[in-house]
């Protein structure tokens, strides 16, 4: 699952990123309102963690603008403002949940799971293609019912492939989705991770699901015998 954290406190932003990444979430951060709004509009996320009070553009305005732009991504507002009027203001702005500071990661993760059960718009967050399945919330992947042990990076790679079945995904798109837009990753690094992922997903099966498209990138398909 890809999460956008819009939080102007660098320390809290870093703590949130570290905690979420340990749970295999893919995290992008923004420290300012306009930057967060642009990222939320331009890139696909399954969830946005949004601070209420931000420089440049407050969280309530960001939520309203995202909804006006027909962005259906779940939004959870994080704020120290817990008055009933503030909660109502946040919900009326278009957020799906409201978590007051300070909070525990246990509560945050529980609320993330609850939001995931609602689905994101009309899209399910549990992916299946052929006999391969992946639940991004529990981080459980199986092939023909047999669990596949994945590293965090392998999990993120497989999730991105399964979110885009039968689509040729360019190398730069995969790198941006898995490692982030601010990270430089060489093509041979991507190839090494893909080789290991293909071994775990396909080696024991006649039907190969992960395919290399020479000159472009990779795709996940129902495969051919």
Number of helices: 8
CATH fold field value of the largest domain: Rossmann fold
CATH architecture of the largest domain: 3-Layer(aba) Sandwich
Number of domains: 2
- Main β-sheet description: 5 strands, parallel
- Provide the CATH superfamily of the largest domain: Response regulator
- Give the tally of β-strands: 12
Assembly type of the chains comes to single chain
Task: Specify the helix fraction band.
Answer: 40-55%
**Element-by-element helix/strand order:** EHEHEHEHEHEEEEHEHHEE
Strand content: 15-25%
Poorly predicted regions are 120-124
Explain this structure to me?
- This protein has 225 residues and is an alpha/beta fold.
- It has two domains: 2-118, Response regulator (Rossmann fold, 3-Layer(aba) Sandwich); 127-220, Arc Repressor Mutant, subunit A, CATH 1.10.10.10.
- It has helices at 10-22, 33-42, 59-68, 84-93, 105-118, 152-163, 171-179, 187-202; strands at residues 2-6, 26-30, 47-51, 74-79, 97-100, 127-129, 132-135, 140-143, 146-148, 169-170, 210-213, 217-220.
- A five-stranded parallel β-sheet has the order 2-1-3-4-5, with helices on both faces.
- A hairpin with a 2-residue loop joins strand 8 and strand 9 (146-148).
- Helix 6 packs across helix 7 (171-179).
- The longest helix has 16 residues, at 187-202.
- The protein is elongated and about 60 Å long.
- 32% of the residues are buried.
- One of its GO terms (molecular function) is transcription cis-regulatory region binding.
- Keywords: DNA-binding, Phosphoprotein, Transcription, Transcription regulation, Two-component regulatory system.
- InterPro entries: CheY-like_superfamily (IPR011006), OmpR/PhoB-type_DNA-bd (IPR001867), Sig_transdc_resp-reg_receiver (IPR001789), WalR-like (IPR039420), WH-like_DNA-bd_sf (IPR036388).
């Amino acid at each position: 699952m890809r999460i956008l954290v819009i939080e102007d406190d660098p320390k809290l932003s870093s703590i949130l990123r570290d905690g979420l990444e340990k749970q295999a979430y893919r995290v992008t951060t923004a420290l300012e309102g306009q930057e967060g709004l642009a990222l939320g509009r331009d890139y696909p996320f399954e969830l946005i963690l949004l601070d209420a009070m931000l420089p440049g553009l407050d969280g309530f305005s960001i939520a309203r603008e995202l909804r006006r732009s027909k962005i259906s991504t779940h939004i959870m507002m994080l704020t120290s403002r817990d008055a009933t009027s503030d909660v109502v203001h946040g919900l009326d702005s278009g957020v799906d949940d409201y978590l007051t500071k300070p909070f525990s990661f246990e509560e945050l993760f529980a609320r993330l799971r609850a939001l995931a059960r609602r689905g994101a718009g009309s899209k399910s967050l549990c992916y299946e293609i052929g006999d391969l399945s992946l639940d991004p919330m529990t981080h459980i992947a199986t092939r023909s019912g047999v669990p596949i042990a994945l590293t965090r990076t392998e999990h993120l790679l497989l999730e991105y492939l399964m979110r885009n079945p039968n689509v040729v995904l360019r190398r730069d798109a995969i790198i941006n989705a898995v490692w982030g837009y601010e990270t430089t990753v060489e093509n041979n690094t991507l190839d090494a991770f893909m080789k290991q992922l293909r071994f775990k997903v396909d080696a024991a099966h006649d039907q190969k699901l992960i395919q290399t498209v020479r000159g472009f990138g990779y795709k996940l398909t129902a495969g051919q015998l």
